[in-house]
Amino acid sequence: MFIGSSLFLLLRSRAAAPTFTRMAVKLSETQLPQLLPWLEKHLPYTFKVHGDLQNYLREQYPDLEFFVDRWPHPRALVARVNPASEQTGVKRLEVDGVFGTNDEALLSLLKDPDIVQWDSSLVLCSLTINLDAVLRAVEQMGKSTKLTVATLLTATPADLKRIPVPEGTKLRAATTADVSRIFSTWKFAGDRTDYLIQERVERYPSVYLETDTGHHVGHMLSTNYGTMGMLYVNPDFRRKGYAKVLISHMAQKFFDMGKDAHVFIEEDNSPSRKLHEGLGFWVVSGMKFVWVKCV
Question: Is the pTM of the predicted complex or chain greater than 0.85?
Answer without folding.
Answer: no
